[in-house]
Amino acid sequence: MIIPHVFNLRQALPAKVNIMQKISMCLWFDDNAEEAAKLYTSLFKDSKILKTDHYGEASAKASGRKKGSVMTVAFQLDGQKFLGLNGGPIFKFTPAISLFAYCKTEKDVDMLYKKLSTGGEVMMPLGKYPFSERYAFIKDMFGVSWQLMLSPEKPHIAPSLLFVGKDLGKAEAAARFYTSVFRRSKIDHLLLYEDGEEGEKGTVKHSLFRLEGQEFIAMDGTGPHVFGFNESISFIVDCDTQEEIDYYWEKLTEGGHEVECGWLTDKFGVSWQINPSILEKMQDDPVKSERMMKALLGMKKLDIAELKKAYDGKR
Asked: Which of left, alpha, beta for 97 (phi over 0: left; psi -120 to 50: alpha)?
């Protein structure tokens, strides 16, 4: 039986890279996470591939993947950590979550537009818009959506959540909910549509908020859109204690639902992974790591004490 969420991905993220980054993005590819990571790291500054992990016996059996094949690729873009997962053709990327890339020069915007749109799709062509001198909304060859914009800010990438269709009008509630859950969080600005504008009055034209100091964007999008959120992009929350895991699990499953192996879906349909940082230290011994993985596969919310017992052969 294929269990889509067998992958516990905190183990693949090197602990020493940008340790202040509490939340990171996981991108679910079919079989081309390595190819995508190589492309992305060739385009952005302060970028590199960090670590590649392979399927072990337990994870391969549970997921239906080939033992020894590439499971995850951890990589860094603009100094921020990301994770690519080879999970099979279960989930497909949608524009519901896009990667918003702020660029310092027009040359950088044009280069990213050319490289990332090749083999992909242009949703808003490169040009001048009321909100930016240089902007484009594209989908790359892997299906990942990007928003490219000229900005005086330091180059960085932020996830952008787009609420459409049945979810239209939920962007403000989502921003307020997430900033109530995470510490060191705030809403920087919230701009609503007014009478006479193309969006529905009172919905969010643009909002920017921070979770644990990290930038997020949320917007409402009118029009006949049929896409929504799914597990193709999820957010990994790095937790040092069981208390932290319990806290985020309880808060984010409220109105949503538990999945498995540390994955959950919140009430807005956005996917999260609530993972203990100690998993990084449980990868040094193949035999112990395999025992730990077997225990993990039977869990929904992860239990640090039980994972330690399994790792030490006491479970």
From this structure: beta
Paired strand residues for 156 = 102
Q: What tokens appear for 179 in the block?
A: 């900033």
Cβ atoms within 10 Å, residue 132:
15
Q: Are strands 23-29 and 233-239 parallel, antiparallel or unpaired?
A: antiparallel
Helix (H, G, I), strand (E, B), or coil: what is residue 180?
A: helix
**Domain limits of the chain?**
9-92+230-311
- Distance (Å, whole) CA 252 – CA 254: 5
Distance CA 35, CA 192 (A): 39
Identity at 195, one-letter amino acid code: D
| 166 neighbors 221 (Cβ within 8 angstroms) | no
User: Do residues 268 and 170 lie in contact, with contact meaning Cβ atoms separated by under 8 Å?
Assistant: yes
As a whole number, mean pLDDT of residues 214-236 equals 95
Residue 154's identity, in one-letter code, is K
pLDDT (0 to 100) of residue 227: 94
CATH architecture of the region 9-92+230-311: Roll (3.10)
Residue 279: CB partners within 8 Å, gap ≥ 6?
Answer: 8, 10, 11, 292, 307
Residue type, 79: G
The mean of the pLDDT values for the chain is 91
CB 136 within 8 A of CB 59: no
Please give the Cα distance from 236 to 264 (Å, whole number): 10
pTM: 0.92
CB–CB of 142/29 below 8 Å? yes
